Amino acid sequence: xxxxxxxxxxxxxxxxxEIVCEILEIDADEVTETSLFKEDHGADSLLAIEILAAxxxxxxxxxxxxxxxxxxxxxxxxxxxxEAANA
Length: 87
Description:
The structure is a single chain. By secondary structure, the protein is mainly alpha-helical. It has four helices and no strands. The protein has helices at about 15-25, 35-40, 45-60, 75-85. Helix 1 packs antiparallel against helix 3 (about 45-60). The two termini are about 25 Å apart.
C-alpha cells in the first residue's frame, strides 16, 4: 500500500457544501458545483467572508482572504480548501 499526499478530492465535499448552503441560506439541491454564489444565489462580500470563516472554523484550515476571488462557486471553494488542507 502506498501513501499519497491528500488532494482536494480528499476533503469532505459534502461538509463543505453544507457549510456554504447554511451561510447562503439555500437548500443543497439549489447549488451546483458551478453555480455562482453572487450571481445565482445573491451572496454579497460579507457572506463570502462568513463562508471563509466557517470553513476555517469547521475544517481547521487557514485560508488567506486573497483566495476569496477564487471562491465564487463550489468548485473554487473545493480547490481553495483542498490547497489549505495540504499547506
